[in-house]
Automatic annotation (TrEMBL):
Residues 44-272 form the Solute-binding protein family 3/N-terminal domain. Keywords: Signal. Pfam families: SBP_bac_3. Belongs to the bacterial solute-binding protein 3 family. One of its GO terms (biological process) is ectoine transmembrane transport. SUPFAM superfamilies: Periplasmic binding protein-like II. The lineage of its organism: Bacteria, Pseudomonadati, Pseudomonadota, Gammaproteobacteria, Oceanospirillales. This is Amino acid ABC transporter substrate-binding protein (PAAT family).
Length: 295
């Protein structure tokens, strides 16, 4: 995800900093991206998530959960990689962590965007998802679209640092002064309740997950999908790898493309809240097109 999308839980017994430091101490920062053969020889693979439900997060035992980890676990098993060393970092640190070889891949359903393709390798799309808004219960400000923040001076909107929503709001002409950047999705609810922002912009799945966490917030009903340059905004999420990890990415892709044609893959997406429309849209574009589309 990037987006988008994305409730971040604080893991009981797992400190975010401590978890990352422990993982780095255990495996060290490698000087180059690992090849498929090197990962197999090592006997394990380091996979990062951004702790975002339902895209990728860790449970209380430190095991990866969500649509990204579920699909990754199957594919890696098919590649003969059974042991996964899960790491959790902030969404904004996923790409920098790959660039520093702190982990071998991510399973966060990060949206494929041209500027990100310049820094990391993406698999073929695994998911597709639309946008949404989280607002105070009963929606007293009657906010129903991202464009409201461009048109109404009194409104402010919160977004996750490094997320696709920042670019969408900018494209719609929302001034930076009306955007509150937060570090985790978990902070979205308090940010709204405490009056620091009137709404939180995220993927539809993310805001639905947040809605379930507190009666003081809700998903904005009658949400109007954002349209930029005449095109409705939708994201395509994928797994990411360091730029030098072509052999690992290519082997992963081969299994992923076959797996997407199975009922098991479709059932996995449905289990995590993806709709039939989301599932069908996952096949709409390939990574090459998404990496080279105008931006």
């Amino acid at each position: 995800m990037d987006t988008t999308a994305m409730f971040t839980r604080t893991l009981r017994g797992w400190g975010l900093t401590g978890l990352v430091i422990t993982a780095c101490l255990a495996f060290g920062a490698e000087t180059h991206a690992a090849t498929l053969d090197e990962v197999r020889e090592r006997g394990s693979i380091r996979v990062a998530v951004a702790d975002e439900i339902p895209y990728g997060y860790l449970d209380e035992s430190g095991k990866g959960q969500g649509v990204g980890p579920d699909v990754a676990r199957y594919i890696l098993g098919q590649l003969g990689i059974e042991k996964i060393d899960w790491q959790v970092v902030s969404f904004n640190d996923l790409i920098t962590g790959l660039e520093a070889n702190q982990f071998d891949m991510t399973a966060a359903e990060m949206a494929i965007r041209p500027e990100r393709c310049e820094r990391v390798l993406f698999s073929q799309p695994n998911t597709s998802y639309g946008e949404g808004l989280l607002v105070r219960a009963t929606n007293p400000e009657e906010i129903n679209a991202y464009s409201d923040f461009a048109e109404r001076d009194e409104l402010t909107v919160a977004v996750l640092a490094g997320s696709t929503q920042i670019d969408i709001l900018d494209s719609l002409g929302v001034p930076k002064s009306r955007i509150e950047v937060i570090d985790t999705n978990a902070a979205a609810i308090d940010t709204i309740i405490q009056g620091q922002a009137d709404a939180y912009a995220g993927t539809g799945l993310t805001v639905s997950q947040l809605d379930a966490q507190s009666p003081q917030v809700e998903v904005a009903q009658n949400f109007v999908d954002p349209v930029v340059d005449g095109e409705m905004i939708r994201s395509w999420g994928a797994f990411t790898f360091p730029r030098e990890a072509e052999t690992l990415r290519d082997a992963f892709n081969e299994v992923l493309l076959a797996y997407r044609n199975t009922q098991a893959w479709e059932d996995t997406l449905r289990k995590h809240g993806f709709t039939q429309n989301d599932i069908l849209n996952a096949f709409r574009f390939d990574t090459e097109w998404l990496c080279n589309r105008p931006h």
